[in-house]
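4.2 Preliminary Data

To establish feasibility before requesting continued support, the project team ran the inverse folding procedure on a target of 325 residues. The structure was first converted into the token representation described in Section 3, and no sequence information of any kind was made available to the design step. The complete token record follows.
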């Protein structure tokens, strides 16, 4: 049974590919290898068939997915709040790029009669007005009306709707919350954990500034736990779409996250806050009861353990690429 992982050289995708290969699966990576993601496969020691493709192009996507029995569809244009939501053009780019990727992948899966699809959806599909409320916790049933987070959220929501109409293919949708760990994206598209770690490593050459006042809260899931959920979801997919949250039910304010990272750095860092900068949602925490019952899944990696491992990797990667010199 041949498995194709779109976005398989990316952050979560590279870890998923390694997990599937370790289980003896035949795996092909379909990825455009943007932003140096090829280093991820090297760092993880992954050796498998690689097909470079811009999945926004139908012909390239069709070639990349040929022969697939199972598709883990993780490929997407993702990034930080600033990268995805800085202005209307950024919103439009995120919407159009991700819609093009999803539409091609889903169309080809139908044409090639793929047996199973596991789709990486997002917490961003939940109403953004609810995410602006302190202490917000989201279950799968929280999607009672449509008001997702910007262009990226709309694209993921429309991806779920497309999958809902695709009969004769077993489908699973993972609404992924904040995932962190080795091979995470660095640079301008980095999300909060690697962004703060990069700032700590660059300190005191650059100031350690947190966007907002630090009260915004998130739940954080270590990448190996995310991969475990995706693999378990594949085993539960059916002709009626299976939708689960993949995240942590433990929340933490960004200010406390920053303090943990500063402690790991062993530096005397002066933490500064900039309330003028965009911070995204005020609160987004996952209710993972459904995943626990249906998939028999729970996160295993503590935040402290995961942050330590991630910090070590970020330090090595930045040193290797000289990104902070």
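Position-by-position output of the design step:
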């Amino acid at each position: 049974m041949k498995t194709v992982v779109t976005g398989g050289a990316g952050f979560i995708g590279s870890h998923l590919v390694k997990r599937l290969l370790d289980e003896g699966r035949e795996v092909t990576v379909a990825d455009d290898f943007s932003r140096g993601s090829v280093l991820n496969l090297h760092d993880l020691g992954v050796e498998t068939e690689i097909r470079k493709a811009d999945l926004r192009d139908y012909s390239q996507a069709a070639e990349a997915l040929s022969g697939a029995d199972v598709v883990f569809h993780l490929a997407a244009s993702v990034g930080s709040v600033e990268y995805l939501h800085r202005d209307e053009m950024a919103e439009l780019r995120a919407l159009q790029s991700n819609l093009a990727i999803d539409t091609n992948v889903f169309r080809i899966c139908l044409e090639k009669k793929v047996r199973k699809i596991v789709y990486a959806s997002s917490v961003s599909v939940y109403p953004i007005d609810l995410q602006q409320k302190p202490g917000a916790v989201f279950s799968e049933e929280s999607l009672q009306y449509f008001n997702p987070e910007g262009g990226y959220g709309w694209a993921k929501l429309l991806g779920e709707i497309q999958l809902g109409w695709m009969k004769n293919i077993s489908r699973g949708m993972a609404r992924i919350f904040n995932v962190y760990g080795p091979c995470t994206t660095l640079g301008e598209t980095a999300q909060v954990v690697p962004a703060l770690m990069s700032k700590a490593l660059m300190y005191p050459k650059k100031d350690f500034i947190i966007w907002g006042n630090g009260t915004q809260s998130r739940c954080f899931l270590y990448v190996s736990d995310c991969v475990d959920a995706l693999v378990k979801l594949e085993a539960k997919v059916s002709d009626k779409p299976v939708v689960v949250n993949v995240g942590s039910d433990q929340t933490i304010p960004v200010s406390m996250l920053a303090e943990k990272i500063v402690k790991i750095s062993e530096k005397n860092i002066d933490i500064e806050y900039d309330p003028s900068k965009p911070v995204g949602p005020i609160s987004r925490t996952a209710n993972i009861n459904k995943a626990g019952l249906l998939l028999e899944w729970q996160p295993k990696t503590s935040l402290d353990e995961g942050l330590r491992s991630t910090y070590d990797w970020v330090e090595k990667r930045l040193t290797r690429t000289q990104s902070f010199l």
